[in-house]
Specification:
Blueprint lengths: L3 H24 L1 H4 L19 H20 L13 H23 L9 H4 L20 H14 L4 H6 L2 H8 L8 E5 L5 H9 L4 E6 L2 H10 L7 E4 L12 E7 L7 H14 E12 L9 H10 L5 H4 L4 H7 L3 E8 L2 E7 L3
Parallel strand pairs: 1-2, 1-4, 2-3, 4-5
Antiparallel strand pairs: 5-7, 6-7
Helix pairs in contact: 1-6, 4-6, 6-10
């Protein structure tokens, strides 16, 4: 059980993070609206299906859930590890410096500046995008340094809290197991934010961090330097470099909405292949259509502001069918604020 002081400290820290990232969101409003065609006004005033009050209510519910999990001992009291004040301010300056460039890119509909024939011989074409219209796509050190700030701005400081909900099915699986004998891989690990929370909870867990971007893997290695035993693997999720039935746990967060439909099915089959019988997949990505009342319009409008060429198909996908066709059994599908958690097991 957490003490009242610990709970108050959590609320103060998360409140400060929300204010910081939400402030960036509103300060960048005029850039995000660049290039959007004006929408026709309805003849009669209509009440929006998703209001600011609804979003703030759901945001608060997420943080209550996060704190309750820590209070119950499911995972440690969160330490978001955003860096020191100097690092935070430097990334903020980088963020605002990139905004006008991204806005210009958006107006011109240039989402493939990082593409080149040489890179296309090494990396899949769908990966060579300026996702979110950001400079460098997912291929440069600068974009890796900016990525988490951009995501937290998009989610108003809630991205880490959503990721931490993946620790709940992880704790369920780990109950009664010796973490020293459990093997886990985080696929599309990005800059390692989720693994930071995993290692806080399970410091002896055998973890491989895999990503297609070498720059992001290097950023993850730096972010996770407190745990030198993590194995970093540069790999395409379509062909994972792990043996059949070699992993107890596979996690993947915010990957499927950035790959084409055919590739999602290939990756799901890879998840199933590398998992041991009885192993667990813990998957998180964006909400989908129909998951939460009032959010469908928000999801449909998202690609208008951010270059996400495969997002429209993702929000219509039947994830349960994709994973079960791959040989897994879906145990849970649940909304987590703006994300969706899916838990699936490989049959014994």
């Amino acid at each position: 059980m957490l003490s009242p002081i610990e709970k108050l400290g959590y609320s103060a820290r998360q409140g400060a993070r929300v204010a910081w990232y939400m402030g960036h969101y509103f300060a960048s409003q005029r850039y995000r609206q660049a290039g959007n065609a004006p929408k026709p006004q309805p003849k009669k005033p209509t009440k929006p299906s998703l209001t600011a009050e609804k979003i703030l209510t759901d945001l608060a519910a997420l943080f209550r859930r996060d704190l309750a999990n820590a209070d119950a001992g499911i995972y440690p009291l969160p330490n978001d590890h955003d860096g020191n004040l100097r690092d935070i301010l430097r990334r903020s300056r980088m963020f605002f410096a990139d905004l006008p460039v991204a806005a210009e890119r958006k107006q011109a509909k240039r989402g493939d500046e990082v593409y080149s024939h040489d890179l296309a011989t090494e990396l899949p074409a769908y990966f060579l995008q300026n996702f979110h219209y950001q400079t460098g796509g997912y291929l440069t050190e600068e974009s890796a340094e900016l990525y988490d700030l951009q995501v937290e701005v998009l989610f108003s400081g809630s991205a880490n809290a959503m990721r931490r909900q993946c620790l709940v099915p992880l704790a369920d699986y780990m109950y009664g197991r010796d973490q020293r004998h459990v093997k886990m891989a985080d696929i599309a690990c990005g800059t390692g934010r989720f693994l930071h929370f995993v290692k806080q909870a399970y410091p002896k867990l055998n973890i491989s961090a895999s990503d297609l971007s070498e720059a992001y893997l290097e950023a993850a290695c730096d972010h996770l330097r407190a745990w030198p035993d993590i194995d970093y693997v540069h790999a395409n999720a379509e062909k994972l470099p792990f043996d059949d039935s070699s992993l107890d746990i596979v996690t993947s967060i915010y990957l499927f909405h950035e790959v084409p439909p055919k590739v999602r099915r290939i990756i799901a089959a890879e998840f199933a292949r590398v998992l041991k019988p009885g192993g667990r997949l813990i998957f998180m990505d964006s909400l989908q259509l129909g998951d939460k009342e009032g959010y469908d319009g928000f999801l449909k409008n998202f690609p208008a502001n951010f270059h996400e060429p495969f997002y429209g198909s993702y929000i219509k996908e039947d994830l349960k069918t994709i994973f079960e066709d791959a040989g897994l059994v879906v145990k849970e599908q649940s909304p987590v604020f703006l994300s969706k958690l899916v838990v699936a097991n490989k049959p014994e």
